[in-house]
Amino acid sequence: MIVILTGAGISAESGLATFRDLGGIWSQVRLEEVATPEAFRADPERVQAFYNARRAQAAQATPNAAHVALGHLQAALDDDLLLVTQNVDDLHERGGAKAVHMHGSLFSALCGECGAREPWQGELGNGERCAACGLETLRPDVVWFGEMPYHMERIEAALQKAELFVSIGTSGQVYPAAGFAALARDCGADTLELNLEATGGAFDRVETGRATEIVPLWVQKTLGRQVSD
Ligand code: APR
């Protein structure tokens, strides 16, 4: 089994900002003001506006060659591949892959009252009502700092039986994702980082470069055949 973890770097060449690169999202706005439950309680309009802007940008973006290559890999490997993403955009899906969104998705709304989820396009925070309970309590279905990431049991079970763990486009700064390479390696997996720069994580091998170049090449090597864009 191969487990792949992706981060914002895989969507950078689709025009979506990363968080910690020069000029990244967290250099433009303080995460404490837009990405915590406390921030949402204090100023819901501000938080909704932040995610409305990111949802609009993500909707305008197109999957790049790295997303498409992972779609081909998943089509070939099926259940022998688990693709986990920290990203809340839908470019993996639009690139042909099914991804496990451990930080949620901009394209899902969560009811803060009854916990119901519903697919969502467009803006939130203008009086929309939850389809299940009817209250005006819909928030972005994204995991804020201080909240529990989604699907962790499934992810940890996969890491424990993986032969290979591949980290793509993530700085490895945020736990629990930052601990996945070490966990996989402790359980016997080989670990590979495909990233613009080495992050110093628990990787046996590191290939540096832009995702649109190094990910399709790696997928081709893994499949032993060309993967078209
Ligand atoms: N190709 C490959 N890697 C790239 C590219 C690119 N074109 N551009 C940037 N990168 C790399 C950077 O070198 C960096 O290591 O992608 C990584 C992006 O790191 P971050 O901006 O920290 O994003 P990420 O690791 O996904 O952040 C993790 O932090 O704020 C939270 O919830 C948020 O999911 C996010 C989490």
TrEMBL record:
Ranges for the Deacetylase sirtuin-type domain?
1-226
UniProt cofactor(s): Zn(2+)
Alphabetized, the UniProt keywords read: Cytoplasm, Metal-binding, NAD, Transferase, Zinc
Q: Where does NAD(+) bind?
A: 7-26, 86-89, 169-171, 195-197, 211
List ligand-binding residues for substrate: Y51, R54
Return the InterPro entries for the record: DHS-like_NAD/FAD-binding_dom, NAD-dep_sirtuin_deacylases, Sirtuin, Sirtuin_cat_small_dom_sf, Sirtuin_class_III, Ssirtuin_cat_dom
Active site (record annotation)? H103 (proton acceptor)
Q: What is its main location?
A: cytoplasm
Pfam families in alphabetical order: SIR2 (PF02146)
| Entry GO MF terms | histone deacetylase activity, NAD-dependent; NAD+ binding; protein-malonyllysine demalonylase activity; protein-succinyllysine desuccinylase activity; zinc ion binding
Q: State the top-level EC class.
A: transferase
Q: What's the record's note on cofactor binding?
A: Binds 1 zinc ion per subunit.
Binding residues annotated for Zn(2+), in chain numbering: C111, C114, C130, C133
So what EC number does this one have? 2.3.1.286
Write down the Gene3D superfamilies for this protein, in alphabetical order.
Answer: SIR2/SIRT2 'Small Domain, TPP-binding domain
Which locations, inside or outside the cell, does it occupy? Answer: Cytoplasm
Q: Which GO terms describe its cellular component?
A: cytoplasm
Write out the catalysed reaction: N(6)-succinyl-L-lysyl-[protein] + NAD(+) + H2O = 2''-O-succinyl-ADP-D-ribose + nicotinamide + L-lysyl-[protein]; N(6)-acetyl-L-lysyl-[protein] + NAD(+) + H2O = 2''-O-acetyl-ADP-D-ribose + nicotinamide + L-lysyl-[protein]
What is the protein's known function?
A: NAD-dependent lysine deacetylase and desuccinylase that specifically removes acetyl and succinyl groups on target proteins. Modulates the activities of several proteins which are inactive in their acylated form.
Q: What is known of its domains?
A: 2 residues (Tyr-51 and Arg-54) present in a large hydrophobic pocket are probably involved in substrate specificity. They are important for desuccinylation activity, but dispensable for deacetylation activity.
Q: Which family does it belong to?
A: Belongs to the sirtuin family. Class III subfamily.
- What is the name of the protein in this document? NAD-dependent protein deacylase
